[in-house]
Amino acid sequence: MLRFASIGTSSIVELFAEAARQVDEVSYVAAYSRDLTRATAFGGPHGARPFTDLGALADAQDIDAVYIASPNALHHEQAVRLLRAGKHVLVEKSAAANAGEWLDLLRIAESNGVALLESVRSVHEPMWRSVESYMESLGTVRQVNLQMCQRSRRYDNYLAGKVENIFKPEMAAGALMDLGVYCLHPLMTLFGLPSRVRASSVKLANGIDANTTLLLDYPAFTATVACSKVSANAAWSVIAGEDASLEMDAVDNPQALRVWWAHSKSHEDLVLDKSQPQQAHVLRAFARMAEQPSLARPHQQATLDALTVMDEARRQTGVRFPSDPDITEHH
């Protein structure tokens, strides 16, 4: 039984706690927040005891793993402390502010023999096996269009002058980091790093990207990635090959998958298993990785590749975070 603590009290942590109830391999035992009242109020209904000191959480002998769902900019510092204390770490996306931070975490996890995983939920649910199983049937892939565009509920607060963490560059936030990663992680999992990255962003007054579009070159095809925090788009994402195309209604949590056959001009709607929440599948996978940390390596590589692409995209568009290394712009 993997005994989990959480960092953060947002709605996504509530989903984590609810999923943990459905997974026999884990138990949710502790909730961390800098505010005791908030930690108690969040953890109490789940039977999780409150923590307000990260060092005490790291040193607790009855906690095996920690789910980090704090702002992106805090992930590295918190994960370093926990990994060095021998805790397995499941970290919400984006896993780090840049590729350099992620490489640092990988080294620490390796040296301490613990599991480290970014919680990109789509690639751990049964749906993903359907995607992988149909890739060969598509023939030579010629085009990939992935999009994640949803207007943030907090955008109205931004417009009213109240800037929350998910709209702060100092928190390593923005459309690319918060939503583009949903597209990039599966893309990197399937195809690896592109040979060329071209990026364009529309930025808000504080320098954060409100929406970003990427054009990514591969030997046989070009991929586009579009993400936005200020506008919604219900268009399906597609992987198009010479023989067939695979479409999904939402890249982060597909409810529908469809295969279009190019020669017969017919389609097939795939049946998806949605009997359990995505996070439950992540927790089961992570429990196995805690026993054998090397199982996480393909996912760790996809995270590194995605962060590498995002670093280059931000370099091109001038979106900078405090933890970014000094770089010289070139054209």
Give an overview in words.
This protein folds into two domains: 147 residues, Rossmann fold (3-Layer(aba) Sandwich), CATH 3.40.50; 153 residues, Dihydrodipicolinate Reductase, domain 2. The strands form two sheets. The chain has an eight-stranded mixed beta sheet, with helices on one face. A six-stranded parallel beta sheet has the order 3-2-1-4-5-6, with helices on both faces. α4 packs parallel to α5, α5 packs antiparallel against α10 and α8 crosses α10. By secondary structure, the protein is of the alpha/beta class. It is built from ten helices and 14 strands.
What topology emerges from the helices and strands here?
Layout (H helix, E strand, L loop, with lengths): L1 E6 L3 H10 L5 E7 L3 H8 L5 E3 L2 H6 L5 E4 L3 H13 L3 E5 L6 H14 L3 E4 L6 H9 L6 E9 L5 H5 L15 H17 L4 E8 L5 E9 L4 E7 L8 E5 L2 E5 L8 E5 L4 E5 L7 H14 L5 H21 L14
Organism: Luteococcus japonicus
InterPro entries: Gfo/Idh/MocA-like_OxRdtase_N (IPR000683), GFO_IDH_MocA-like_dom (IPR055170), NAD(P)-bd_dom_sf (IPR036291)
Protein name: Putative dehydrogenase
